[in-house]
Amino acid sequence: MTLREALQYAEEQLRAGSHPVRARLDAEALLLHLTGKNRAWLLTHAADPFGGCTATQYAALLQRRLTGEPIQYITGTCEFYGLPFHVTRDVLIPRPETEHLVEKALELARNMGAPGLDSETWESTQPPGAPSMESAAGGRHGWETTSSSTSKRAPSLARTLGQGWETNTLGSWSGSILDIGTGSGAIAIALAHHLPHARVTATDVSPAALSIARENAERNHVAERIRFLPGDLLAPVASDHFDLIVSNPPYVAEADLPTLDPEVRDFEPHAALFAGPDGLAVYSRLIPAAFAALVPGGWLLLEIGYGQSESVPALCAAAGFHRITTTPDLQGIPRVVAAAHP
To answer: Do residues 141 and 250 both lie within one domain?
Structure first.
C-alpha cells in the first residue's frame, strides 16, 4: 500500500462518518500528525510505500476519528487567532467564534488609550478625525447590536491597526486584563501577544486546564506576561481591579445536552460547557463580581450562546453596567456582549 492508497482508504472510511465534508482534510491531518511531515512532503511522496507499524498506528488514529473524537484532541493541537495551542480533553477546543472576543478586547484597548483616562481627557489626546470614546465604545446607554461583524483573523485586524496613532496606542497600552475561566489559555495568550505591555491575569477552577494554559503560554513566548491563578471565577483576584475583564464561560443549558454535536457532547469537558437549566448560572455570578472588580470606565466582554442576546445584556444592566452592546459572529449570530463600567 502506498501513502496515496492509505489516504484514499481513510477518506472513504471517514465519508461514512458524521462529518463527511471534512473526510479528506481529516485523513490528511491524521497522517501528517503521525509522520510529522507537512502537506508539501505528502504531495511529493504519495507513491512511497506505507505499511508496518506506521500503518497500524494510522488505523488506530482513524478509528478514534470514526468514533467522533475531535481531530484537535487526536492530534493534540489547534490554531487560535493565528497562534498554536496544545489541547487535551481537559480543555475546550478554542473556536473561531471566540476570536471575536479577542478582537473586541483589542478594539477597546486601542480606543481606551492610556488606562484611567476619562472621556474628556482621552479625546483631547487624539488627533483630528479620531473616534470619540462615546462612538468607539458603542454610543448611548442601553444595549444594541452592532451593524457590522468583526473580521475573523488577526491579520485583518492588524491591517486595520497598521496606520498611525492606532498602532502606537495598541502597542503601548499598559492596562490590566483578567481572563476568567481561561481553559487552554487561548484568550489570555492572544491578548498578551498583541498587547505586549498589558498586565494579564488568567483564572480557572481546573488545575489541569491551568497546566495546559501555562504550557501554551510558554509555547507562544508570553508566559512571563501572564499570571495564572487557580480558583472559581474572580475568587483568586478578590482584591484586584482591572481595565478589561473577558470571559468565555460555560453557557449551555443542561436541557440542550441531547442537541449538541456528538464531538462536543461526548468529548469536551462538561464543566466548561454547561451552566444550569437555562445556561445563565455562571453569568449570574460572574457579572456582578466583574462589576465590582472593574475600574471606572473599564469593560466587561462576554461570549454568549445562541438565544442569549437579551438575557445576558439584561443581567449586565441589572448589575449597573452601561453602554451595553452585542457583536455578531460571521454567521450574524450575536456572539460578544460588551458592557462598560460607569
So the answer is: yes
